Structure formats: C-alpha cells, structure tokens
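queue> pop job 88
queue> type: inverse folding (structure -> sequence)
queue> payload:
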C-alpha cells in the first residue's frame, strides 16, 4: 500500500511538471528568454526555498543543515550547474520539437543516465538480483520512449512544413533531436546532485526532520546551481536579441499577467521534485523502487507530456500507423513503471 501511495504522489508531481510549459502560451509580449528566466526565478529559487524551509524543524536553520553536509553541499550545487545546461536545453527541445516529442527524447535519456549512473557509483551489480531488475526496468522505459520517439519521426514525415509549423511554431527536427539528447544527458546530473546530498538528508533526519520533506533542502542546492547557468544564458540572449525591454516596456497589466503565469509555471515545474521527495518517503530505503524512482518520475513526465501533446493537437493530421506506434510506446512506458513491483 505504501508503494502505491508513493507512486500516486510522484504522479501528481509529474502532472504538474508536464503542464508547466503549456503556460508559455499565456505570457504576452515577452521573448522566450524573458519567460524562461522569470519562470526560473520561481521554479529554481522561490519555491525550492519555501520547500526547503518547510523541512527544517523549529530551532534550526537551513544554513545549519547545509553545513552539516560538508563538501556534499558544494557537490550538489556543482551538479546543479551541470544540470542547468540540461534544464536550458530541455526548454529549447520543447521549443523545436513540441511538448510531446521534446520531452520524450530528453526525459528518456535523462531517465537512463540519472538512474544507472548512481547505481554504478554505489557499486551495484546490474547483472543479478535487484540490480538486474533495475537494469531491465530502465531498459523497458528507454524502449517505450524510443517507440514514442519513432512515432514523432513518423509524425514529422506525415505532416507538411506548414502543418508542422502550425503544431509547433519553431519546429526543427534535426536541431531539436540533438538538443533533446544533450538535455537528457545533462539533466541526469540533477539526480546525481540529489544523491550527493545524502549526508544532508541524514543530518536533517537526526534532528527530527520529517522524511516526507527530507529531500527539499538538497533540491534547493541543485536548483541554485541550475539557476546560475540559466540566468547567464537568458541574460546573454536578452542582450544579444535586445529584449531587455521586455521587462520595462510592458504595461502594468501585462507585467501582472506574465508574473502570475510565470509563477504558476514555476510551482508546477517544482512540484515534480517536491513530489519525488515525498513519494520516496513511502518506499523502503535501499529497495529497487527507491533506486528506480528517478526513472519512474521521468517516465511519468513523458506519459503526461504526450497526453498534453494530444490535447494541444500536436498529433493532429498524422496517420493511423503513427497513432498506433504512439499508443504502443505509452503502453511499454506504463509497464516499465509497474515492472519492478510485479517481479518483486
């Protein structure tokens, strides 16, 4: 029962993450880089800070908990800086491929690297026992995502250039695929950052922190690093494209509209990791489900992003074969999520 509760919590967070980019359509008169920077302030600073504070018991401070982790604190920030490259290119992958295909390719790569690298660093044997179950589960997830990616390539072939641009304004298949794969590899650093902060989680538990929120202070460290990378890029793009005026020429009404939707996008994005930490607290420490939880989150993100892709008509105009392939991919993805629990 605890496993089911954990999965539901992670799924709720995943629904939020899969929905955040939809809100860019509500932002008025701003360039992409201005939207990305503003939503990032909320997604990577404001809400992670609030989440971290919620985890600290009375009489203690966030700084105290971080310092208890020693060098692990800086490792988490460092991985966050690398993840920031993934977060940035992740946004670009959706810009060029759409929500469905962009998230599928980026998150599939992220799922594999983010799950298997920590296991290998711990010295787990992936060829027998729980390690083999973990490896098979990840392979199933990758297979499902690869099938979805194939459906995306069929979609690109079936649609005319005009239809592609109508579904995804800046559609560019080759550029988008390369960016999505880079995004996936670098985004895996987020989970490496979370794993590096294990001593911080232990220190928090030792002073009475609740296991439901024990991951929050570590999440904030990783997102601080990620914000630095994204802020540098977005401000450079503001300078290059002469879009600093986005922040000054907008009327008060437009500013308020954009601020509200950027804040909503930020909290929706952050909900995936808040949900991951809360959901993990229902899994047995050291279990296959705990090790597989990162892959579960990424797979759910792909699943729900494709549902959004259908709702937003990104798959309109494609043939029956493409839809069939898409459904097969989603089915394999769903099976990969429940596989570790079935075999146990």
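queue> result:
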């Amino acid at each position: 029962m605890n496993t089911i509760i954990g999965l539901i919590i992670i799924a709720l967070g995943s629904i939020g993450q899969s929905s955040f980019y939809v809100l860019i359509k509500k932002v008025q008169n701003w360039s992409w880089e201005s939207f990305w920077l503003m939503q990032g302030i909320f997604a990577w600073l404001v809400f992670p800070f609030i989440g971290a504070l919620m985890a600290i018991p009375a009489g203690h401070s966030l700084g105290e908990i971080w310092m208890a982790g020693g060098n692990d604190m800086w490792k988490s920030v460092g991985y966050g800086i690398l993840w920031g490259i993934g977060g940035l290119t992740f946004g670009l992958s959706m810009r060029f491929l759409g929500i469905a295909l962009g998230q599928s390719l980026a998150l599939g790569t992220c799922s594999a690297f983010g799950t298997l690298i920590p296991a290998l660093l711990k010295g787990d044997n992936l060829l027998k026992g729980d390690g083999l179950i973990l490896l098979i589960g990840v392979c199933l997830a990758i297979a499902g995502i690869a099938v979805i990616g194939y459906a995306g390539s069929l979609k690109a072939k079936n649609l005319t250039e005009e239809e592609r641009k109508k579904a995804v304004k800046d559609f560019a298949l080759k550029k988008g695929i390369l960016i999505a794969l880079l995004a996936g590899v670098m985004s895996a650093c987020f989970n490496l950052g979370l794993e590096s902060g294990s001593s911080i989680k232990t220190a928090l538990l030792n002073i009475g922190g609740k296991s439901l929120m024990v991951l929050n202070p570590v999440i904030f460290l990783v997102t601080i690093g990620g914000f630095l990378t994204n802020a540098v890029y977005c401000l450079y793009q503001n300078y290059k494209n002469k879009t600093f005026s986005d922040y000054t020429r907008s009327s008060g009404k437009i500013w308020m509209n954009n601020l509200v939707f950027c804040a909503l996008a930020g909290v929706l994005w952050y909900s995936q990791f808040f949900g991951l930490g809360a959901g993990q607290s229902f899994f047995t420490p050291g279990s296959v489900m705990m090790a597989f939880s990162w892959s579960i989150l990424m797979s759910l993100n792909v699943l729900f992003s494709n549902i959004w892709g259908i709702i937003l008509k990104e798959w309109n105009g494609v043939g029956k074969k493409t839809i069939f392939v898409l459904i097969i991919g989603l089915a394999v993805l769903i099976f990969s999520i429940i596989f570790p629990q079935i075999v146990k």
